[in-house]
Amino acid sequence: MPPELNLRISPRTVQQETVGKLRLAILSGLFEPGSRLIESQLCAQLGVSRPSLREALRSLEAERLIEIVPNRGPSIPALSWSEATAIYEVRELLEVEAAGRCATRIPTEQLHELEKSLAAFEEAASSNDSLAQVMTAADFYSIILANCGNPILEEVHRGLVARISFFRGRSMSLEGRAQSSLSEMREIYESIAAGDEKAARKASKRHLLKAKAAAKMSMNSES
Amino acid sequence: MPPELNLRISPRTVQQETVGKLRLAILSGLFEPGSRLIESQLCAQLGVSRPSLREALRSLEAERLIEIVPNRGPSIPALSWSEATAIYEVRELLEVEAAGRCATRIPTEQLHELEKSLAAFEEAASSNDSLAQVMTAADFYSIILANCGNPILEEVHRGLVARISFFRGRSMSLEGRAQSSLSEMREIYESIAAGDEKAARKASKRHLLKAKAAAKMSMNSES
DNA sequence: CAACCTATATTGTCTGACATTCTTGCAATC
DNA sequence: GATTGCAAGAATGTCAGACAATATAGGTTG
């Protein structure tokens, strides 16, 4: 048996389960930005003890999905626009690079997956379910990132995208944004399918600038 | 009082203290890569209870400074060269961008700080203290990152650099590497001081490629 | 020497407790 | 009426102790 093949089965611990559920809840927008999370409530809702919950919260804090202020406890960060801008900028740096690399190296079978995820987004885009839109769009990116040949790029990107999920959900709800997003993503897909690195970078960059602009609009229109 | 000015005083909690001490210990190379950390031992050494320690370990796990396998506990990750390469690549992406931005926007007083940190590295480079070399070099980068105008770029970069501290320590010990590093860093400094964005990017990229090569050499020469 | 088994070490998780700190509502004061 | 001060309640930070489940090491047996 090859030693580098890690077959260790990982039993899901309570802690991991808790992190998973909380992360999903946060990304789904279940908690209002700025709202506080009460340990005792979460313990009751999740059915775990306080130590396990607190470990989970520390993990999420390190991921920057929540903030923990000493003696005040955990809360959902309320991202300012300048912070969101900074995240969008770094995301652009990473995602453009990933799209470019992906164009020259994605295997055909993964390209099919990418096509499928694009179709899934198309389906979601014609509905009004903005959560489904965000989720399917995230699938699309994650296939690109998974095939850029650099797992760290993927990991960092995932972390950043998670932190702006709130904005992404809001901007997808804008009139026409989903459709426009769809055509931009199709451009990215076609550049990658054609193996055209430069075009993939360009398309990716264009998409991100528009996404950022949409996020900003959605922010101004409400706050 | 302007609301964005956060005056909240943050009492250092046991958990934060513990994370800080452990992080420092890891970055200093106190633990062998691959070695396991025993909770009971760490509790005794740090003088904290097991719940507090475990919270700290979860934070470090999320930072990727340690790994925690269910039922086996925490250990120091043994980075493979391919993982290290991936980190160096993303680091290059970020650091080159930061150096470029820094060149056009660093305030003069921060430029002086940068100069001072370069001098500190020069001092360390002529010694044989490779830990001091790594630390002063890290100061140099962190000033650049702190003045690139994007705090997220800074944050992500810091996280990545922390993960390869082991390699950086090793490669600094290579014959002549510190001196060569010094001249590369001086180039970066001078490009930034001249406000030449393109030159800063080039110098930064050159420096990183050499650092990566040195890390690879130091790895091959031992394992 | 290999396989098995047992004892020990270690982790995962919970309960319960208590001091400290924050929040909130109300009373007192200006 | 607004502000200050205070007290009760709520929430967090931290610890001690316990126990089951799992992993590791060492010895035994074939």
TrEMBL record, chains A, B:
<dbReference type="InterPro" id="IPR000524">
    <property type="entry name" value="Tscrpt_reg_HTH_GntR"/>
</dbReference>
<dbReference type="InterPro" id="IPR008920">
    <property type="entry name" value="TF_FadR/GntR_C"/>
</dbReference>
<dbReference type="Pfam" id="PF00392">
    <property type="entry name" value="GntR"/>
</dbReference>
<protein>
    <submittedName>
        <fullName>GntR family transcriptional regulator</fullName>
    </submittedName>
</protein>
<keyword id="KW-0804">Transcription</keyword>
<dbReference type="Pfam" id="PF07729">
    <property type="entry name" value="FCD"/>
</dbReference>
<dbReference type="InterPro" id="IPR036390">
    <property type="entry name" value="WH_DNA-bd_sf"/>
</dbReference>
<keyword id="KW-0238">DNA-binding</keyword>
<feature type="domain" description="HTH gntR-type">
    <location>
        <begin position="12"/>
        <end position="79"/>
    </location>
</feature>
<dbReference type="InterPro" id="IPR011711">
    <property type="entry name" value="GntR_C"/>
</dbReference>
<keyword id="KW-0805">Transcription regulation</keyword>
<dbReference type="InterPro" id="IPR036388">
    <property type="entry name" value="WH-like_DNA-bd_sf"/>
</dbReference>
